[in-house]
Amino acid sequence: MNEKNYFTIVVPLSPDAQKIVQGNPSAVPLRAAVWSQAAERMKPLLGGVCSRFSPAAAPYGEPLHLPFGVALGGAEAEQFLLCYFHARENQEEEIRSRTQAIRALGRKVGQFHPDEETTLTVMAFRSSDPELHKQMDVAQRFFSDDITAAAGLYYLGFGSNYINEQQERQILSNPEAYALCVAELQPVEEAAR
């Protein structure tokens, strides 16, 4: 695997943690605590999604220096937002890829437009298809907020793999209340070599 695989967790900061960032932007002990909290939440990824994970030194190919792979929104708003938008873009691409994989297993039966902005497509699937069952299991776990089915981005404060626009605005309008932790994942198959 040539391209690095990143997993990003958005971590809410307590009011006390936000004060620490204001008084000490480097806040190494706080970064270590955020990494520890995120790493604890990522443990279910081990063995299935990855063989190990570590703090990303330069996530998404950007020349960023993030001790413990953590960007503090109140100290590094630019890095926080840059990493967040990379993670969101990767998440959307992964969701598109997963959706396409499910669609490829079906047969289009029909399509109609209930209004100008909406297109509904009816698909038929073989319920006995093991690949369909596998893809649907991942989709169900994603929407059940199972971190092992996350598409590279997890929102710790919401306990969710995906958030709505209002929740995202909450994060983007108040980045100082959040930290972003980026881990580099080593896929299971690479560990076997």
Automatic annotation (TrEMBL):
Superkingdom per UniProt: Bacteria
Organism from which the protein derives: Flavonifractor plautii
Name of this protein: Uncharacterized protein
